Amino acid sequence: MALNFWQSSHYLHWMKALRLEDLKRINPKDTSLDMSEVESIHLAMISLMEELGARLHINQIIICTAILIYRRFYLTQSFCDFDPRLVCGTALFISSKIEECQARLSDITTSLHELTTPYTEDREAFFEFTEKDIIECEFFVIEAMQYDMIMHHPFPTLIKLYDEFEVEFPMDEHSFKMAWDLTLYTYRTHLIMLHPPFMIAHAVLFLTLVDAAYDGHDMLDKCNINHDMVVEIATELQQSIEEHKALCALQATSLAKLAEVVPDPFA
């Protein structure tokens, strides 16, 4: 898996030259927002994709692929040109096709309308985002992604590692759920964009073993992997949880400012 990853467009085009500074660069058109507000908006949109996926009974891999699509798109694009709510629906639509489990476009637009319309009485109004909007946005998203549709995820490695070390480091269902949830959480952080998925999986298992009162370094000693890098990722993951709380507190004001920036859907 690692060998395939190093040769993939995921690594060569979207990770090899990417730095944290690139992810923290504000688009010149979005300068009315500061970096914390931008990151807070991205977190809100990731939550929206998760809610959309849950409503549509879409599996988590499709949602995770959609999040990567969304993140890649906004590496170069602006909120002023593309409403992130529309991009969320579009990313989920594209992702469902990539993962060969295509969601119905009408279901996406209906659920998107319901989730982004705060008042029940307003839900009978015209949809802000129609099927036509998503189809048009799809072209721009795919172009921004440079037509790179292959994406790697940490989950296969996580399952493989868990199975390999289950006998030596017995853990209960809570531990596996913790590992799975932590892996899902990485999609809310910069880590998933900056580090190879199999490294993310090792870092997650390291933290899970520590939580289960094992020495995570014992596991790393048995793996042919950069120990320091895994521990560094694990540390960054722990730190991001506190940062996440602060960003969530900003969401109300950030989304209010976003409403003044995004294109008018009825214009």
UniProtKB/TrEMBL annotation:
It holds the Pfam family Cyclin_N. One of its GO terms (molecular function) is cyclin-dependent protein serine/threonine kinase regulator activity. SUPFAM superfamilies: Cyclin-like (SSF47954). One of its GO terms (cellular component) is nucleus. Residues 47-143 form the Cyclin-like domain. It is found in: Nucleus. The keyword Nucleus applies. One of its GO terms (biological process) is regulation of transcription by RNA polymerase II. Keywords: Activator, Cyclin, Nucleus, Repressor, Transcription, Transcription regulation. Belongs to the cyclin family. Cyclin C subfamily. This is Cyclin-like domain-containing protein.
